[in-house]
Amino acid sequence: MTKRVAILISGGGSNMIKLAQSMTGDHPARPVLVASNDPAAAGLDVAREMGIETAAVDHRAYGRDRASFEAALLAELERAAPDIICLAGFMRVLGAEFVSRWEGRMLNIHPSLLPKYRGLDTHARAIAAGDTEAGCTVHLVTPALDDGPILGQARVPIRADDTPQSLAARVLEQEHRLYPAVLRRFAEGERQPLMLD
Ligand code: GAR
Asked: What does DSSP assign to residue 59?
């Protein structure tokens, strides 16, 4: 049975594009929805051009009422009936109830070698710490932020002259390799972590 994949984004959606492009041919999954918390997210236009259904649930319309925002997002997702949800640059923290609803079926990509540098500003923190390597992690989403079981990692060296921007660009290239590879394996039922150099 082909797996149905929903992808959540907040911005440009370069990871979403790589994921969607990968789901062709004998791939066991297909993209059924790209949703964003920002109606102006550039990735929504790209998804539409790729022929993928889109939805926008503007978190600003809900103020501090996260429960109502998540209920609206949940309704969009349930309409699409995904088997797998991929967070791909989705910059809202999701509550425990929402996360539990999709436990074991929701993946996230994070721009650090978890468990190092959960949260934001990962590249600046890695440089400031004097680390010699950085990278990205795909993991299952659990209620604790950036903390679920690791499904794959890719590493990049940190150069002496790296800025957070230059490092982010090199890590993003690896994200584009890692996430489609992990999604394919996950859709095939593989749960062993994929470690790329
Ligand atoms: C990516 O680097 C992703 O790892 C990061 O946001 C970027 C989104 O880029 N995600 C997080 O920081 C999640 N906390 P994209 O929109 O081009 O895929």
From this structure: G
Q: Is residue 196 part of a domain?
A: no
For ligand 1, say whether the CB of 176 is within 6 Å of any of its atoms.
no
Ligand 1 binding pocket includes 193 (Cβ within 6 Å): no
Q: Does the Cβ of 13 fall within 6 Å of ligand 1?
A: yes
Can you give the CATH number for the domain in which 161 is found? 3.40.50.170
Write the pLDDT tens digit of every residue in 59-118.
999 999 999 999 999 999 999 999 999 999 999 999 999 999 999 999 999 999 999 999
Ligand 1, atom 9, residue with closest C-alpha: 89
Position in ligand 1 atom list of the atom nearest CA 109? 4
Strands 3-9 and 29-36: parallel
Q: Is 104 part of any domain? A: yes
Q: For the chain, what is the domain count?
A: 1
**Where in the sequence is the domain holding 23, given as residue range(s)?**
3-190
Q: Does the annotation mark 139 as catalytic? A: no
- The pLDDT tens digits for 106-126 are 999 999 999 999 999 999 999
Rounded alpha-carbon distances, angstroms, from residue 38 to 10, 51, 59, 142: 6, 19, 7, 23
For residue 93, being part of any structural domain is answered with yes
Q: pTM to 2 decimals?
A: 0.98
